[in-house]
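Entry type: protein chain
Record version: 2
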Amino acid sequence: MRLALAVLLAFAASPALAATCAPVSTEARILASVDYDDIHPDWSDGSRIGLSWSLDLLGEEEGEDGDYYLIGDLVDPSGDVVTESVFVSAMEWECDAD
């Protein structure tokens, strides 16, 4: 799984390709850093992400816990960027290259 994600992200990092990611459940967390417990302040009130939200992928980073985190702009179902440069757990999102 990590290898497939790494390959996908390598293609996503190419200037000619972009990737969009979707949450796999409504339990997906929106983070302020590569720390799974560092909930983004805009999402710390218990708000839940809907399955029709997306993440415009900008990159990835490995956390100190050894897990991978995606970095991107959070987009609502209307296509508006709601929160820029958030982190999400790669295990909680699926990404497809456009």
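Comment: The CA atoms of residues 5 and 95 lie 8 Å apart.
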